[in-house]
Amino acid sequence: MNARLWHKDIDAITIPDARKQWLLGASRLVQAFKANLGEVQIEALQEGRNKLFADEQAALQLEDKEAHIRQIVIATKDGHRLSYARVAIADETYEAYAQQFSGLGRQFIGDSLLYNNKDVIRQPFEFACFDDASVYAQAFFQLVQSRAESQPWPARRSVFLWQNRPLLITEFLLPYLATVPYTNTI
To answer: How much is the average pLDDT of 68-73?
Structure first.
């Protein structure tokens, strides 16, 4: 996998179902989930220092091949898995804001630390679509300890600069969302 798999123009990739509207319509995905589906929570959470994938390393412009990685699976209250997200936090960012990161627990990072923070700048989205052989899908399967049927993995990512210190949020929309119409209610 390389950074060229990511595109600034969503029309440069093929997204085979209704998840394209979810990628485009919501700048804050968790808020869109809540508005369209009701309460959501973190179903699975894993975090710690880990190896970056090559495209994450390139997006963060890091020489170091490791960073603090926070992986989450977001689900509805009735158990449908909606998305899988990876947050890659550069060491300099993690060290500068260690207290805030350590206090996150099962809270959503965007709502808790990034949005409405005047010291944070969000760069434009990039889009990609992976298959279940991708390193991202494999990390998801390991996190939830199960394997789903073969599906495309539409995704978006954005680099956030917190006082010029980078972190990367990558969000993958899981197959259930293809069955849920997106309505812009936020």
So the answer is: 87
